[in-house]
Structure formats: C-alpha cells, structure tokens
Amino acid sequence: MNPWRIAISAFILVLLAGWIVLCAGSGAALIDGAGRTLLMGVAYAEMALVAVLLVAATVLPFPNPTPLPVPALGLLALAVPVGKLLLAGAPSAQRWIAEGPRVRIRRPDPVQTHRVLATLTLGLIAASLCAVSILAPVPAGSGNDPASVFTQD
Predict the structure, then answer these.
(1) pTM > 0.85
(2) Among 62, 40, 58, which residue's Cα sits nearest to residue 50?
C-alpha cells in the first residue's frame, strides 16, 4: 500500500477523533455549567465546514453518490450544528450556566481509607494471574496465533 495513503488516512482519523473529543468536551462544559462558548464555536465551525463543502460540491465536478439533491444534503448536514446552537441558546441552558459551575464536594481518597482492603485485592489479583500463568501455560507449538491462548485443541 502507498505510504502517502496511509499517512493521509491516519491524519483524517486523528482529525475525526479530535473533532469528536472537541464536541464531547464542549457538551460536557455546557452540562458542567462552565459555559457555552466552546459549544457554540464548534457549531459555527461545523456550519462553516458545511458551507465550504456545499460550495465545493457545486463548483467541482464529481458525482453525487446519493439519490438526494445537493441542497437537501446540505440541509441534512446543517441539522446537527443548528441543533447544537438551539441547545446552547435555550432558556434552560442559559439559566443553568448563569448558576455557574457546580461545587465539587471533597471526598476522602478510598485507597487511603481502605488501605488494607486495597492491598489484599491487589495481592489476590496478582496471585490469580500467577496461578493462571503457571497452571495454564501456552502450548509450545502454538506459533503466533493469539486464539491458541484461549482455546485448547
């Protein structure tokens, strides 16, 4: 396979993953009461991207892979960012943000509170893993097949 295709595919996957994290973080910021500017910024950026793609679809000659006309596809693509803007502009969301971020309640660290139980649990897990590795070894002729670890022939 061409290394440029791999690099472009990896770049696109990283870009999509970053967009998903940005969308999730902006929604979490709204729910946490920290603000709505990130959510609105992401929605406006999505709307600008849809506008650029619509212009590119109109100007550049490539076939439409769907039976829908291009304006209908544009309206469908605008549904998500417009929904985000409606959510961020809702009176309930504005009142929620006006109250400010929620107060975090300080709780004691459970590991400090239950030090003996945490140590016993870790020891039990380690002993179980040692027992599995000793009592169920991997067959010598298994090769590189990962399924041979979990099945017995």
Answers:
(1) no
(2) 58
